[in-house]
Amino acid sequence: MTLIKSISGIRGTIGGKVGDNLTPVDAVKFASAYGTWLKQHAKNEKLTVVIGRDARISGPMIHNLVVNTLIGLGIDVIDLGLSTTPTVEIAVPLENADGGIILTASHNPKQWNALKLLNEKGEFLSGEAGAIILDIAEREAFDFSDVDSLGEITVNDAYMDIHIDEVLELPLVDIEAVKQAKFKVVVDGVNSSGGIIIPKILELMGVECVKLYCEPNGHFPHNPEPLKEHLTDISELVVKEKADFGIVVDPDVDRLAFISEDGEMFGEEYTLVAIADYVLSKTPGNTVSNMSSSRALADVTKLHGGTYEASAVGEVNVVELMKKNNAIIGGEGNGGIIYPESHYGRDSIVGVALFLTHLAHKKMKVSELRASYSQYFMSKNKIELTPQIDVDAILVAMAEKYKSENISTVDGVKIDFAENWVHLRKSNTEPIIRIYTEAKSQEEADKIAFRIIDEIKAVAGI
Fold first, then answer.
1. Top-level CATH class of 163-371?
2. CA distances from 276 to 260, 303, 340, 345, 350 (A)
3. Is 173 helix (H, G, I), strand (E, B) or coil?
4. 377-460 architecture in CATH?
5. Which PANTHER family does the entry link to (predicted)?
6. Catalytic residue among 106, 193, 294, 311
7. Which of 38, 127, 314, 442 has a CA that sits 20 to 30 A from residue 363's CA?
8. How far is Cα 259 from Cα 239, in angstroms, rounded to an integer?
9. Which CATH class is domain 3-157?
10. Using 50, 70 and 90 to split pLDDT, how confident is the model at 40?
């Protein structure tokens, strides 16, 4: 059990000891620190924060603690209730709020929860702001309001519908073309918020929707990270239903993966590739993804005459580089789509609408669309961390071992070989070292990964 503090928010397992896990005391402490930071930096005298949560079991408990902590600080709360990460992100500026909190541990299993913190633009906080908030929490430098200055709660449960309306109004979303295509799609909502919002937008776009695990009860029927090994049920159902494809989202709906009509994975890395292909074909420009993402995005960008750049891992890093390079689309290879025309945040709802439009225009099977892109294969592995493992020393040793290659140490260690690459880094969301490799065959990607893992274990003495 553990508590992780990073650019991805305050994330931990429910229960256990204060300071070691995400206990009620920790939830109150970090909500207090965030609220205190807002009061120190916001321009408005009376502050407002938007709050939403995914459907995980601990959600109502953490939600009540966080909301009432902000009220105690004299901050008004707009409570969206059950929601999605991108929905909260668009709600913050629409409500002219000073910040937002999404209560979700994203792709982590049900024992986890987290506070994802947003600024007044509905974007994730910078590393500098996060460091200040952690310092406030450490010092417990809180000053709560008196009884006449407490905040107030306003409940607004309409924002998932507002979000859908915003997406359907995007110029590149062609509802009529999608309706004419008469798609049939299976949706795995992993029994969270995606089980509500994804079927709703599909129905509005004229798509026949077959629901799988779409009851938002927080009992995840499989590991909620949208990886091939977790998605056998939907793969089988897509084939059984003779559907055009399947859609899978994680509990807070900021990661998107597709299943082809033959039951095979489209590949979460290729979610961004396909949608960028469509966006770039209509509005040429630049792209950004993180350095753990596939080279296929760079290939597509070059094909459309744009420039591709890679950021450090983490949504805030991707967004920062997208703004710097005027990228018109970007995201992360884990199925995260960031489309600035809508907002600067990973958004599966935007991704679904753009992918459907792309497929309707292409008039081809999903498997054929996948085959039209550069063929790369990734191997995603991890090593569980213990207190005895010195991650920094491991990374330094690996960088030294491969110093004759093209090395980047912007985020962990990335080694670019001529035909493949490997990226080693400490996770922002779990107590693990991630080892990602990419090559032109799955066999080669796995071979490189296993070699690197053996080398890491030798350095670490494990």
1. alpha beta
2. 18, 11, 12, 15, 12
3. coil
4. 2-Layer Sandwich (3.30)
5. PHOSPHOGLUCOMUTASE (ALPHA-D-GLUCOSE-1,6-BISPHOSPHATE-DEPENDENT), PHOSPHOHEXOSE MUTASE
6. 106
7. 442
8. 10
9. alpha beta
10. very high
